[in-house]
Amino acid sequence: MRRTDPLLPRALQEPETVSGLHARGWERLIAEARGTGLIGRLQARLADAGQLERVPEGPRRHLDAAARVAASHQASAEREIRRVLAALQPLGEPVIFLKGAAYLVAGHPVARGRMFSDIDILMPREMLARVESELMVAGWVATHLDRHDQRYYRSWMHELPPLEHLSRGTTVDVHHTLYPVTGRLALPIGPVIEAAEPVPGWPGAKVLAPADQVLHSAVHLLWEGEFDHGLRDLSDIDMLLRHAGARAAFWEELPQRAAQLHLQRPLYYALRYARRLLGTPVPPEVVTALQAHAPGPPVRRLMDALFGRVLAPPDLDDRRQALARQLLFLRGHWLKMPLHLLVYHLGHKALFPPREAAGARG
To answer: For residue 306, is pLDDT > 50?
Structure first.
């Protein structure tokens, strides 16, 4: 059982509250921020709120160091993104960037202090062979060479096997849709690609439309069963909503877009937990409209208990958190694959575990 409530969610929501922390509280807050990959964002939030000068010297050094690391990381990421664009320029088609890379090229507020390990791009499925060929010419090679893993990615999932650069070690994930093709969400990708927006200052680059960014983040966090950066990803959703929600029409577009893409349930969960954990402002009429897509009370209570634990900062002493992660990991696989494929895939992994870890994920 968690002995104390986490400090980080409230610090992100109300940065001025950190002024009352004592030494032990700062120690906990910095540890939570590091454990969730949010220390750079915490520094940015405190700076924006004019609170950095009130931070004691010890934690201030950690925050300042995180800001420098994030700035260096983002400069390196920008160079790598330009290399990806150069490699794919012969195709004559725009490259749609996703997640961290998209936030960076768009100059979105969510990018401030955010770290990411992979460059995720979205390309039409009919272009995958040419995309992979051009990236291989530029030095990126496929990982996960096991025959089963190749089939897993190329036939069942929403992306190619990760491509890792031979000399720089950077990883590119090439998506052709936003959710596994064997999954339970029938997500039409055509409208998403058509609505992608060009990025000023980045010729050949596009990012998803604001509503689609929120919906993709919701699917990635709540439907795929991976929670290594759960609170960070929920914080992404919070900041995406706050930024796009400054335009009133966005709140009409978001539920309509969710209906068009058959993503009402993931959006329901995303708004529910963003509001609960980070105080995200959502118009009451949007909350009411999505109630029709809520699960029944028993399932809702179970999901609240499970997501409430995995979206909190990691606690190695919390056995219920570890159990919740395991259960939601299995749920994610169950949602991504029909039962016969899931049994086959998990059985193969149990009998033939990978000999070494493949490329970094992010």
So the answer is: yes
Q: In what order do the strands lie in the sheet with 197-198?
A: 140-142, 163-165, 171-175, 118-122, 95-98, 205-207, 197-198
Q: Which amino acid is at 75?
A: A
Domain count of the fold of the chain: 1
Question: Which CATH number is 53's domain given?
Answer: 3.30.460.40
User: Mean pLDDT, to the nearest integer, of 197-216?
Assistant: 97
Strand, helix or coil at 33? helix
pLDDT of res. 87: 97
310-344 confidence digits (pLDDT tens):
999 888 678 899 999 999 999 998 898 777 777 76
1 within a domain of the structure (yes/no): no
- What residue numbers bound the domain in which 142 lies? 8-351
Could you tell me if 268 and 304 are in contact, meaning their C-beta atoms sit under 8 angstroms apart?
no
Diameter of the chain measured on Cα atoms: 57
Please state, in angstroms and rounded to a whole number, the distance separating the CA atoms of residues 362 and 359: 10
Token code pair at residue 220: 């990635």
d(CA 352, CA 362): 24
The answer on pLDDT for 136 being more than 80 is: yes
Residue 2 counted as domain residue: no
Residue 189 inside a domain? The answer is yes
pLDDT at position 354 is: 61
155-194: b (≥16 Cβ within 10 Å) or e: ebbbbbbbbbbeeeebbbbbbbbbbbebbebebebeebbe
User: Which among 343, 318, 320 is positioned nearest to 330, based on CA atoms?
Assistant: 343
What mean pLDDT do residues 254-263 have? Answer: 96
**In a 10 Å sphere around its CB, with 0-12 CB exposed, 13-18 middle and 19+ buried, how is residue 138 labelled?**
middle
Q: What distance in Å separates the CA atoms of residue 226 and residue 232, rounded to the nearest whole number?
A: 12
* Domain membership flag for residue 322: yes
189 in Cβ contact with 216 (< 8 Å): no
Alpha carbons 125 and 122: distance in angstroms, whole number: 9
